[in-house]
């Protein structure tokens, strides 16, 4: 049995542990029918999108797909009123993740981190705006914990950076409940940002034209970034094609996404994040080749001074 490199990297090269973990993941995927989930009708798709916002939106400066999830938007009482149970919501999350892997993370960018694990990593933005303290002891927190646990166990090496943004002053209490579910390497990639810190930090790593206006960028997709980024229009086409039993016509949007990813549709700019980009108010210019190497532990130490996360350790995610 060939073990995917991502599992080997996650287990620090321990073949036995990687094989066991991969076998567990294969069994879990079979149990949840994940290989067929994209061809299953998503009957609650629009309802869930109304009360739980998550979307793919262009890419960061190195080509990692940008995944944005508004954890503060989860309205569990309203979802339950219209028949969406926590299990149904979780299945929607898995559908979105499988879509991401097939249509956004099916090829790897040129950074060393992705090349090492042979997986396309994501730049993840988790928006805590709107989260109330009441969410921290109920089904919302349980849903977040469930999703976090699955990502840690069965989708290794998928996060390049994680930004938890617009955090309220009391967020430390919520972090205590989520942090134990993350291994040390994932915690090291996680940057916790207040509302004031959000835009400056994100713009170090994401070009303004690729970042929605609400996070300090200049992108304002016609009809709204949440529903009308190229990725989300592709996802909706897939959902509609399954529900209506019609062909999935994806070629035009796939081509558009490819152009967005290559940078052919962006203004000419070579500005990239540098080793001290989060410890200085100014950014320097460097070639894309110089940014292919993954941030070193020294750089990560500097990166997480912006937030509340400790320096990274040696374990892998």
Automatic annotation (TrEMBL):
Residues 44-223 form the CRAL-TRIO domain. SMART domains: SEC14 (SM00516). Residues 257-295 are annotated as: Disordered. Residues 275-289 have a biased composition (Low complexity). InterPro entries: CRAL-TRIO_dom, CRAL-TRIO_dom_sf, CRAL/TRIO_N_dom_sf, PI/PC_transfer. SUPFAM superfamilies: CRAL/TRIO domain, CRAL/TRIO N-terminal domain. This is Phosphoinositol transporter.
